[in-house]
Amino acid sequence: MSIERITKHFRDSAQTKLDSIDHLAVPIAAAVDVIVGALTSGNKILCCGNGGSAADAQHFAAELIGRFERERPSLPAIALTTDSSILTAVANDYQFDQVFARQVRGLGQPGDVLLAITTSGNSANVLEAIKAAHEREMIVIALTGKGGGKMNEALGDNDMHLCVPSERTARIQEVHLLSIHCLCDGIDALLCGDE
Ligand SMILES: O=C(CO)[C@@H](O)[C@H](O)[C@H](O)[C@H](O)COP(=O)(O)O
Ligand SMILES: [Zn+2]
Protein backbone atom coordinates (compact mmCIF):
# COMPACT_ATOMS: atom_id res chain seq x y z
CA MET A 1 0.00 0.00 0.00
CA SER A 2 1.28 3.45 -0.87
CA ILE A 3 2.31 5.92 1.79
CA GLU A 4 0.28 8.52 -0.13
CA ARG A 5 -2.95 6.58 0.40
CA ILE A 6 -2.30 6.31 4.10
CA THR A 7 -1.36 9.96 4.35
CA LYS A 8 -4.58 10.90 2.53
CA HIS A 9 -6.66 8.89 5.05
CA PHE A 10 -5.01 10.72 7.95
CA ARG A 11 -5.42 14.13 6.29
CA ASP A 12 -9.05 13.49 5.26
CA SER A 13 -9.92 12.25 8.74
CA ALA A 14 -8.32 15.29 10.38
CA GLN A 15 -10.08 17.64 7.92
CA THR A 16 -13.49 16.02 8.54
CA LYS A 17 -12.95 16.46 12.26
CA LEU A 18 -12.07 20.14 11.78
CA ASP A 19 -15.10 20.63 9.51
CA SER A 20 -17.31 19.05 12.17
CA ILE A 21 -16.51 21.43 15.03
CA ASP A 22 -18.96 24.13 13.90
CA HIS A 23 -21.69 21.54 13.23
CA LEU A 24 -21.29 19.42 16.34
CA ALA A 25 -19.84 21.35 19.29
CA VAL A 26 -23.14 22.98 20.30
CA PRO A 27 -25.31 19.85 19.83
CA ILE A 28 -22.77 17.67 21.67
CA ALA A 29 -22.87 20.08 24.64
CA ALA A 30 -26.69 19.95 24.56
CA ALA A 31 -26.60 16.14 24.35
CA VAL A 32 -24.38 16.03 27.45
CA ASP A 33 -26.98 18.10 29.32
CA VAL A 34 -29.75 15.71 28.23
CA ILE A 35 -27.77 12.60 29.21
CA VAL A 36 -26.72 13.98 32.60
CA GLY A 37 -30.30 15.13 33.26
CA ALA A 38 -31.51 11.60 32.55
CA LEU A 39 -28.80 9.93 34.66
CA THR A 40 -29.35 12.21 37.65
CA SER A 41 -33.10 11.48 37.46
CA GLY A 42 -32.44 7.76 37.77
CA ASN A 43 -32.81 6.97 34.07
CA LYS A 44 -30.51 4.96 31.81
CA ILE A 45 -28.97 5.06 28.35
CA LEU A 46 -29.69 2.46 25.63
CA CYS A 47 -27.39 2.43 22.57
CA CYS A 48 -27.70 0.81 19.13
CA GLY A 49 -26.18 0.73 15.63
CA ASN A 50 -24.97 -1.71 12.97
CA GLY A 51 -21.45 -2.87 12.08
CA GLY A 52 -18.90 -0.25 13.09
CA SER A 53 -21.71 1.68 14.76
CA ALA A 54 -22.56 -1.40 16.86
CA ALA A 55 -18.97 -1.24 18.07
CA ASP A 56 -19.46 2.48 18.81
CA ALA A 57 -22.64 1.72 20.79
CA GLN A 58 -20.74 -0.87 22.85
CA HIS A 59 -17.79 1.49 23.27
CA PHE A 60 -20.05 4.18 24.76
CA ALA A 61 -21.88 1.76 27.08
CA ALA A 62 -18.52 0.37 28.26
CA GLU A 63 -17.26 3.84 29.11
CA LEU A 64 -20.40 4.64 31.11
CA ILE A 65 -20.58 1.32 32.97
CA GLY A 66 -16.81 1.24 33.41
CA ARG A 67 -15.06 4.56 33.18
CA PHE A 68 -13.65 7.10 30.74
CA GLU A 69 -10.59 9.03 31.91
CA ARG A 70 -11.24 9.29 35.63
CA GLU A 71 -12.70 7.41 38.54
CA ARG A 72 -16.43 7.84 39.20
CA PRO A 73 -19.44 5.65 40.02
CA SER A 74 -20.69 3.29 37.33
CA LEU A 75 -23.42 4.82 35.15
CA PRO A 76 -26.36 2.81 33.73
CA ALA A 77 -26.00 2.10 29.99
CA ILE A 78 -26.86 -0.92 27.84
CA ALA A 79 -25.70 -1.67 24.28
CA LEU A 80 -28.57 -3.41 22.43
CA THR A 81 -26.08 -5.03 20.04
CA THR A 82 -24.45 -7.69 22.18
CA ASP A 83 -26.83 -10.51 23.13
CA SER A 84 -26.70 -13.00 20.26
CA SER A 85 -29.63 -15.01 21.67
CA ILE A 86 -31.90 -11.96 21.72
CA LEU A 87 -30.67 -10.74 18.32
CA THR A 88 -31.14 -14.12 16.61
CA ALA A 89 -34.49 -14.86 18.28
CA VAL A 90 -36.01 -11.50 17.37
CA ALA A 91 -34.59 -11.56 13.82
CA ASN A 92 -35.78 -15.15 13.34
CA ASP A 93 -39.23 -14.86 14.93
CA TYR A 94 -40.09 -11.30 13.82
CA GLN A 95 -37.93 -9.27 11.43
CA PHE A 96 -34.32 -8.10 11.52
CA ASP A 97 -35.58 -4.52 11.65
CA GLN A 98 -37.06 -5.30 15.10
CA VAL A 99 -33.82 -6.42 16.80
CA PHE A 100 -33.34 -3.12 18.65
CA ALA A 101 -36.98 -1.99 18.84
CA ARG A 102 -38.01 -5.13 20.70
CA GLN A 103 -35.31 -4.50 23.32
CA VAL A 104 -36.32 -0.84 23.62
CA ARG A 105 -39.92 -1.95 24.29
CA GLY A 106 -38.70 -4.40 26.94
CA LEU A 107 -36.13 -2.20 28.66
CA GLY A 108 -37.08 1.42 27.96
CA GLN A 109 -38.71 3.66 30.56
CA PRO A 110 -39.96 7.25 30.23
CA GLY A 111 -37.00 9.61 30.48
CA ASP A 112 -34.42 7.06 29.33
CA VAL A 113 -32.16 8.07 26.43
CA LEU A 114 -31.64 6.12 23.19
CA LEU A 115 -28.28 6.80 21.50
CA ALA A 116 -29.02 5.81 17.87
CA ILE A 117 -25.95 5.55 15.64
CA THR A 118 -26.17 5.27 11.84
CA THR A 119 -23.81 6.87 9.32
CA SER A 120 -26.47 6.92 6.57
CA GLY A 121 -29.41 7.75 8.81
CA ASN A 122 -31.26 5.00 6.94
CA SER A 123 -30.76 1.70 8.82
CA ALA A 124 -34.26 0.26 9.28
CA ASN A 125 -33.55 -1.40 12.64
CA VAL A 126 -32.25 1.88 14.07
CA LEU A 127 -35.28 3.79 12.73
CA GLU A 128 -37.62 1.18 14.26
CA ALA A 129 -35.78 1.54 17.59
CA ILE A 130 -36.54 5.26 17.47
CA LYS A 131 -40.26 4.56 16.94
CA ALA A 132 -40.19 2.25 19.98
CA ALA A 133 -38.29 4.86 22.02
CA HIS A 134 -40.99 7.43 21.24
CA GLU A 135 -43.68 4.96 22.38
CA ARG A 136 -41.76 4.61 25.65
CA GLU A 137 -41.45 8.42 26.02
CA MET A 138 -37.68 8.28 25.74
CA ILE A 139 -35.39 10.99 24.35
CA VAL A 140 -33.38 10.12 21.24
CA ILE A 141 -29.87 11.34 20.48
CA ALA A 142 -29.01 10.42 16.89
CA LEU A 143 -25.47 10.30 15.48
CA THR A 144 -25.58 10.32 11.67
CA GLY A 145 -23.86 11.64 8.52
CA LYS A 146 -24.64 11.98 4.79
CA GLY A 147 -27.23 14.67 5.50
CA GLY A 148 -29.08 12.46 7.99
CA GLY A 149 -31.22 10.51 5.45
CA LYS A 150 -34.50 9.17 6.87
CA MET A 151 -33.43 10.21 10.36
CA ASN A 152 -34.59 13.73 9.51
CA GLU A 153 -38.22 12.52 9.47
CA ALA A 154 -37.83 9.98 12.28
CA LEU A 155 -36.86 12.37 15.06
CA GLY A 156 -39.29 14.32 17.24
CA ASP A 157 -39.05 17.87 18.59
CA ASN A 158 -37.41 16.78 21.87
CA ASP A 159 -34.75 14.67 20.14
CA MET A 160 -31.23 15.69 19.14
CA HIS A 161 -29.50 15.14 15.80
CA LEU A 162 -25.69 15.19 15.54
CA CYS A 163 -25.01 14.92 11.79
CA VAL A 164 -21.39 14.71 10.60
CA PRO A 165 -20.80 16.84 7.47
CA SER A 166 -19.37 14.01 5.33
CA GLU A 167 -20.59 11.47 2.76
CA ARG A 168 -17.98 8.83 3.60
CA THR A 169 -18.86 6.10 6.10
CA ALA A 170 -15.36 5.66 7.52
CA ARG A 171 -14.87 9.40 8.08
CA ILE A 172 -18.31 9.69 9.68
CA GLN A 173 -17.54 6.80 12.03
CA GLU A 174 -14.26 8.44 13.02
CA VAL A 175 -16.12 11.62 14.01
CA HIS A 176 -18.79 9.57 15.79
CA LEU A 177 -16.09 8.04 18.00
CA LEU A 178 -14.63 11.47 18.74
CA SER A 179 -18.14 12.72 19.57
CA ILE A 180 -18.69 9.76 21.91
CA HIS A 181 -15.49 10.63 23.75
CA CYS A 182 -16.66 14.27 23.99
CA LEU A 183 -19.94 13.00 25.48
CA CYS A 184 -18.02 10.92 28.04
CA ASP A 185 -15.78 13.84 28.95
CA GLY A 186 -18.76 16.19 29.25
CA ILE A 187 -20.68 13.74 31.43
CA ASP A 188 -17.69 13.37 33.76
CA ALA A 189 -17.16 17.15 33.89
CA LEU A 190 -20.80 17.82 34.79
CA LEU A 191 -21.03 15.01 37.33
CA CYS A 192 -17.58 15.34 38.93
CA GLY A 193 -16.46 18.90 38.10
CA ASP A 194 -13.98 20.32 35.57
CA GLU A 195 -10.44 19.03 35.81
O1 LIG B 1 -17.78 -0.16 9.73
C1 LIG B 1 -18.28 -0.25 8.64
C2 LIG B 1 -17.79 0.55 7.51
O2 LIG B 1 -16.72 1.38 7.92
C3 LIG B 1 -19.44 -1.16 8.37
O3 LIG B 1 -19.42 -2.28 9.24
C4 LIG B 1 -20.78 -0.41 8.54
O4 LIG B 1 -20.92 -0.03 9.89
C5 LIG B 1 -21.96 -1.29 8.11
O5 LIG B 1 -21.92 -1.41 6.71
C6 LIG B 1 -23.32 -0.75 8.55
O6 LIG B 1 -24.33 -1.70 8.22
C7 LIG B 1 -23.69 0.60 7.96
O7 LIG B 1 -24.91 1.05 8.54
P1 LIG B 1 -25.28 2.59 8.73
O8 LIG B 1 -24.10 3.31 9.30
O9 LIG B 1 -25.68 3.13 7.39
O10 LIG B 1 -26.44 2.57 9.69
ZN1 LIG C 1 -15.73 0.91 9.83
Tell me about this structure.
- By secondary structure, the chain is α/β, with parallel strands linked by helices.
- The protein has a single domain (3-192), classed as Glucose-6-phosphate isomerase like protein, domain 1 (Rossmann fold, 3-Layer(aba) Sandwich), CATH 3.40.50.10490.
- It contains seven helices and five strands.
- It has helices at residues 3-40, 52-65, 84-93, 101-107, 124-135, 151-154, 169-192; strands at residues 45-49, 77-79, 113-117, 139-145, 160-164.
- The protein has a five-stranded parallel sheet, with helices on both faces.
- α1 runs parallel beside α7.
- The longest helix has 38 residues, at 3-40.
- The protein is globular, with a radius of gyration of 16 Å.
- The mean pLDDT is 97.
- Bound molecules: D-altro-hept-2-ulose 7-phosphate and zinc ion.
- Residues 50-53, 118-120, 122-123, 126, 169-170, 173 line the site of D-altro-hept-2-ulose 7-phosphate.
- It catalyses: 2 D-sedoheptulose 7-phosphate = D-glycero-alpha-D-manno-heptose 7-phosphate + D-glycero-beta-D-manno-heptose 7-phosphate.
- Substrate binds at residues 50-52, 63, 92-93, 118-120, 123, 173.
- One of its GO terms (biological process) is D-glycero-D-manno-heptose 7-phosphate biosynthetic process.
- This is Phosphoheptose isomerase.
